[in-house]
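Structure tokens please, single chain.
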Amino acid sequence: LGVMGVIVLLYFVFTSPNVIVRWVDGNYPAILISLGAGMVLFSFVFAVKPEWLKAPKVGVLLIWNIVFVIALTFTILPYQIQFPAIPEAYPLYEPPKPFWADFALYLMLLLSPVVVLDFILYTREIVRAQARPRQLGGGFLAAGFFLLVMVLAQVFTTVYDYIPFIGPYFRDKFWLVHLFAGVVAALPVLLIKTSPDTEKAKGKPVLAMILAAIYLATVLGAFITAAKPQPPAEVGNSLRVMTYNIQQGYNPAGVKNFDGQLNLIRSQNPDILGLQESDTNRIAGGNSDVVRYFANRLNMYSYYGPKTVTGTFGIALLSRYPIENPHTFYMYSEGEQTATIVANIQVGDRLFNIFVTHLGNDGPIVQQEAILKEIDGLENVIAMGDFNFRPDSEQYRLTTSILEDAWLLKWSSGVDDQGYNPTRRIDHVFVSPGTTVTEARYLTQPESDHPALVVEIAW
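Here you go.
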């Protein structure tokens, strides 16, 4: 169980530092450097003093584990919003980060090598025990069951609305899943036996130097491949906007399709890109950061949106122009948790108010009302996303009472010049009254289970 607890922590968190970045909306290079520094220091200490591995001080190791698990839990907790159960409490903005949150984060990163040390000591104890196959089989059966429970528990923190009876218990419990994994990984420390062999082992610092070089290369690689966007040298009088539900980076057949979606986006050359279902920074998405992947390859500014610990399916904003004052607010949700990004983007002398959202199933009107409440009174609004409501709905009529449907501003009949008539469309771009729309197209290529919508506005 201890071995499997370590594997769960590595699987969920520490083999993919980008997962931690999206927990806390943190600085990617700083987190990568801190995690690497802890591992390199750990490697040097035990390469030079291998006898400390042969005869570990159980008390010290237990304290190390306890402090690490506490730091891990308190890294998540400041961002784990307890969502109110009444609609009147919404729209709900993210609370300010407490002063101690960064201390917990970097303490966790520096102490994280304890999971590697635990793994080394636990596997050594299993070998020393010389257990019979039946004993090993029973132990790993229990460990395998624990792994299954932990995977389901982590997944349930996002998809709870789709799991009858038990699912709702996991809402807002992301922190608890990781606390439990950390406790299971730490407790077997009490069973470790120190080696009676007190002969001093010969250190091998060269191994630590090799590992340090690998971490240095990793950090340099992160800097080299990172997006380095620059505002366009010339600012025209038009803006190309694209909204796209990327279905966690998969195509309709369920095949991972980051590059197919990237090529579609690149072919449209948007100035502003809103993404929905972009939360791939979890085990169900292979711990991949599709937003960073797109931003790096498109060389765009990006804002990830709601933090992954809140259990949304993810929304993100990418832009060729700097994204100013980005923040996230949440809407009342009886089912899956929903959120909206709001930000400012300055294009020449014109300031745009950008909203990116993904409403819940059937586009609950209470959620759209929360968005419209924030839009009311603003100029130069561009509200885009998967609204999950169609043009014949009350939500649509409410929205178009204060905003214009960009598709109809270009194609007043609802049918474009190629005969395309999207009567059941749920992906929309709404703009302020008086906006000039010079182009609007739904792109129905099979790169996702949703079409992308591209709209060009001019002034």
